[in-house]
Amino acid sequence: MFIGAVADDLTGATDLALMLSRGGMRVLQVVGVPREGIEFGDAEAVVVALKSRTIPAAEAVAQSVASARALLAAGARQLFFKYCSTFDSTDEGNIGPVTDALLDLLGETRTIACPAFPANKRTIYKGHLFVGDVLLSESSMRNHPLTPMQDANLVRVLQRQTRRPVSLIAHDAVIGAPETLERAIAGLEGIGIVDAITESDLRAIGRAVRSLKLVTGGSGIALGLPDNFRTAGAAAAPTAITPAPGRSVMLAGSCSLATRKQIETALAAGTPALQIDPMAIVSGALKVSDAVDFVLAAPAGRAPLIYSSADPDAVARVQGQLGRAESGEVVEHFLGAVARELLNRGVTRFLVAGGETSGAVVNALKVEALGIGPEIDPGVPWTLTRGAGKPIALALKSGNFGTEDFFIKAWDLVA
Ligand code: ADP
Q: Whose CA is nearest to atom 18 of ligand 1?
């Protein structure tokens, strides 16, 4: 194993796994802290998907360190800590505390932090993170319910979370001679936020961090990592995925703008769809069996869609009645139960929209590990379950990812 990665959420882990797979590595994604005795097979990179972005820092540290120990024990030569390209965190963590703990575990004193992902319009200049054309602090992340990002200066943001010094490796060094960047990294004391605007910047940084024991960042920075370990030719990127024969379904719990547009497009194209209302779940008017029956009754040929996605006003009304966390749980629990029952009834292909929703479905299906298949859109591959049970195809989409025809074109890649 060359790269052992710990990701702070599920769809982020998949995004990273895809990046490493595109770089020609055999990648295995593991869900949750690896259990004792787990087999990583012939994987050159293993990505552990935690759900540690917004849990208390001490728990995030404990899970990340336990995962890192398992990866190191299996021979990982470099550790990677993956977080969101919008640096989702609070002054309490968890990016700083986890980075500190992993450096301590390795007995190292320096690493970089680079969440840039130009393909998804996340760039860093003079230490400031931009989302599209605006500063992070002026983007919609400003109002995120759990991790509101109100300061775009990542040196300042990270310094509030770590006892190690945080400094900036500016763009001049990134685009200069390779030795300049390598010297800047070798001279780091503590953690260096690294400017990056283009994919060529990310490749240069990827090359320059080859001797670091720990790298931290978004999935973009993984663009340049596989080349550092390449001995033979790259594995060819998969072009299709072949799950066990069975029916298909789409489950959407994301209320993001991108997902709502994707649903509109799918409905316009004639996708059989059932919208579920959280209040109807709570009142008992809508049962898991209703959704399951709807899917099984849909004509073969086009994957049916079950969705709870609603606009912000509707979500606010439900949250007003049930509470924020409770309404999320009601929907996640319902979609998880629908997924489990559909698996029992012969569905083997699941497309899921929403980070938390994906986590709920993967838990309900008791998925332990995933192999990475073909890319549907930047950051979203088809995956195939590994381990006991028949191989199931899963596409796990972070709410904001994907083009408007995602729910249609994704199926072209499934055998
Ligand atoms: P994203 O990736 O877009 O953030 P998530 O699945 O992570 O999507 O989060 C969406 C959250 O909203 C989930 O907890 C989900 O259960 C909840 N949710 C989905 N539909 C509704 C709804 N109609 N009303 C209230 N909450 C909802």
A: 328
